[in-house]
Structure formats: C-alpha cells, structure tokens
Amino acid sequence: MSSLLERRALLEELVSKGIRLTAQRRAVIEVIQDASEHLDAASLLELARQREPNIDRATVYRTLELLKKLRLIDELDLMHLYGEKHYYEAKTERNHAHLACFRCGRIEEYASPLFERLKAEISKQAGFTIKVTRLEVGGNCSACAADTTTVQEDTETRTAAAQH
Ligand SMILES: [Zn+2]
Ligand SMILES: [Zn+2]
After folding, report:
1. Hey, which of 40, 71, 126, 154 would disulfide with 85, CB 3.0 to 4.6 Å?
2. Residue from 79, 141, 64, 145 nearest 108 by CA
3. Smallest-distance ligand from the CA of 135
4. What's the CA gap between 63 and 143, in Å, rounded?
5. How far is the CA of 52 from the centre of ligand 2 (A)?
6. Torsion on CA atoms 141, 146, 149, 150, rounded to nearest 10
7. What ligand has the least distance to the C-alpha of 106?
8. What domain range includes position 97?
9. Number of domains in the chain
10. CATH number of the domain enclosing 51
C-alpha cells in the first residue's frame, strides 16, 4: 500500500489523548486498524468477538462514535452498493477516493495530489475550514469494463450483488 494511504494509528492516538480503553473497546479498535477492507458495524462486531467474546453491539456503536468524534475514522456509504449500511476505516494521512463497481461490488481506493489541491482551493476561494471530505465514484471497474460477456443494466446487477 502506498505511503499516501498510511492509516492513522488509532490506539496510539487515543492513548496520547489520555483516553482509557476497556479490553472490549480496544478489540473493536484493533479490528478497524487491521482491516484490509471497509467493514460495517455487523462485521466489526463479529470480528471483535473473536478477540473479546463479551462485546455487544452497544460497545461497537459507542466506540465508533468516539472515533468519529475524534476524527480518527471515516464513515462511508460506498454508493449504497449494499443498501443503507455504513462502513468504517481508519483515516489515512491523505484523503482518498473510493471507486465502487456497480457490477462486481469491488471497492478501490484512489489517492491523488489533485484531491489535496482541490481542498486547498476550496479553503482559499470559499474561505471554508475543511474538517471532512469524502469522494465516492460509482461505475464499472477495469475488469468489469473489459468483460463484455455479460451486458446487463447497472441497476439489475447492483441488486444481484446486494443479495450475495
Ligand atoms: Zn467490477
Ligand atoms: Zn478507504
């Protein structure tokens, strides 16, 4: 993974802020930190339970709220490929865009210096202090775009993908 997409060290940053963590909260945070994909709350709960069996949904949601409040994680909807779920990831040092494939459901991360320049321009031209930015792009990934064997309506395949 490129250095542009290096993740914030969640546990270290919380400790440096003097925030005390229970073993349960620590497990939830470790799962987010170690994740190689974007996880929703249900998957987070399942994975955290493998580390700390007593974790409940409330712990997951409270931990997510804390991390969001401190701006250590991003909350994404990933073009609603799979309905109304939200996904979480440790913030990266630079913003990245999410490219969501309507056909296979793959999520690609894309970082560009142009994104940083756009943020700088917005701050300057609009006098806006940016705290959060999010860029999601929906369409067909390179593999699906090259695959001409199945030509279907995007909406049909998206529904089929959501049922997996
Ligand atoms: Zn695809
Ligand atoms: Zn991401």
Report:
1. 40
2. 141
3. 2
4. 37
5. 25
6. 20
7. 1
8. 3-162
9. 1
10. 1.10.10.10
